Amino acid sequence: MTATTRQHTASVLFGQALRYENRADPYPFYEQLRQQPVVCTEDGTWLVSGHREISLLLRDPRISADRRNPQQQQPIRKSLLVEDPPRHDQLRHLVTEQFVPRVMGMRDHIDALVTGLLDAHTSERPGQLDVVGDLAYPLPVTVICELLGVPREDERLFGSLARRLTRGLDPIDTQTEDELRELQQARGELIEYLEGLITRHDATGGDDLLSGLMQSQGPDGPMDPVDLRVTLGLLLIAGHETTVNLIANGTLALLRHPEALARLRTDPDLATPLVEEVLRYDPPVQMSGRSTLTDIDIAGTTIPKGARVRLLLAAANRDPHRFPDPDRFLPDRPDNAHLGFGGGIHYCIGATLARAEAQIALTALARRLESPRLVADPPPYRDNAILRGPERLPVSFARLVPDPRAT
Fold first, then answer.
1. Do 97 and 89 contact (CB within 8 A), yes or no?
2. Strand locations in 177-331, DSSP E?
3. From CA 294, how far away is CA 104, in angstroms rounded?
4. Which terminal residue of the chain has fewer beta carbons within 10 Å of its beta carbon, N or C?
5. Is 317 helix (H, G, I), strand (E, B) or coil?
């Protein structure tokens, strides 16, 4: 196969994986892309789909987290998600110092929120539940808003902005002009809201995450207002949207594998490895963007300096060279070194919180929904190809089993 043919084939396969009609199952296209684990497409983007290759690149200082071509960068303020050392390390230290202590010890509160959501929505519609709209969406938005100190009356607005902004993570050539204008408008609305939120906290203070970030001191002093605003925007999206998909994708996997659902119902300890398997088998983040700072030799080819790179995490998570029987959902899969939360210095800062929310939500669904079944399979999916998950996940069930801990 000539280089031109390989580029064309890769472009076609990647394009098919991004198409909405294949959103429910992009994995056959990822499987074909893995036949050439590092390949250049016709537009010059390099696709990396092998587990070994992505694991190496995630830890390689010669590759930048900034998805733009380094030779065309302009001096704009970026979130730690797309920053490189040393600036990344400085920002991450400030956030971790305030974020991690507040997340530890939240499991009981998350459990109570899940119980309340299930009780409230199933009493309104007995025997019916939209797992996305009734549980997977409101749970993480409530948690992240409480952490950040967002007033409860603003939670709906905050969640709506997050959903509008996630479309901007998709490749720009998949977005229409109307979508790009909508994205710009949503960014403006978020900036305006966050500036007001920061101003109110500056006047009143508090013990929430935002107040902690405003008061924290790094080697270069506290975060300046722009860094603070950018960091809050990142936590809003990263702390909410990915968890929505993790819970929804996990529910979908359980309902498609009733033997795993039955095991979880009687063995809540299974939730820990099961969520790791969901992160491998059907990850909420399908891919991540990078750019090269110098030539990189890998998998028998050379990615040139200044190249755009897409790390296809979902493809790597089903690499048969790393995972035996990779297309099979095994809730207690051993040695599950998935890339669902990325890797290296940019490993997901909210991984602990996302795991807790998913473990508690999936266990509650297994324990309390009697005879659940999917109303539609596949369910309707969201437009977003990178943060991939169902738009709605309607489930019918015989009854809501009372929470035994409430008696």
1. no
2. 288-292, 296-298, 301-303, 308-311
3. 40
4. C
5. coil
Tokens matching residue 289: 């963007």
Per-residue CA distances from 99 to 201, 294, 349 (Å): 17, 34, 9
As a dihedral over the C-alpha atoms of residue 310, residue 313, residue 349, residue 343, rounded to 10 degrees, the angle is -90
Question: Which residue, among 379, 389, 374, 400, has the nearest Cα to 340 in the 3D structure?
Answer: 389
Closest CA to 159 of 130, 195, 132, 198: 132
| Cα(215)–Cα(220) distance, integer angstroms | 13
Q: H or E stretch including 40?
A: strand 38-40
Round to whole Å and give the CA distance between 111 and 115: 6
Look at residues 382, 389, 281 and name the one whose alpha carbon lies nearest to residue 340. Answer: 281
DSSP 379: P
Q: Contact, 216 vs 223, CB < 8 A? A: yes
pLDDT tens sequence across 337-368:
999 999 999 999 999 999 999 999 999 999 99
Q: CA-CA distance, 276 to 244, in Å (whole number)?
A: 15
For tokens 């998600």, the residue is 81
More confident residue, 215 or 125: 215
Instruction: Give the count of alpha carbons within 13 A of 207, CB side only.
Output: 2
Torsion of CA 199, 204, 205, 208, to 10 degrees: -80
The H helix count followed by the E strand count for the chain is: 15, 12
Instruction: With beta carbons less than 8 A apart as the criterion, state whether 196 and 190 touch.
Output: no
Q: Distance (Å, rounded) from C-alpha 295 to C-alpha 105?
A: 45
Predicted pLDDT of residue 174: 62
Report which secondary-structure segment, H or E, holds 39: strand 38-40
**CB–CB of 317/339 below 8 Å?**
yes
**Alpha carbon distance 90, 218 (integer Å):** 7
Structure token digits, residue 311? 């790390």
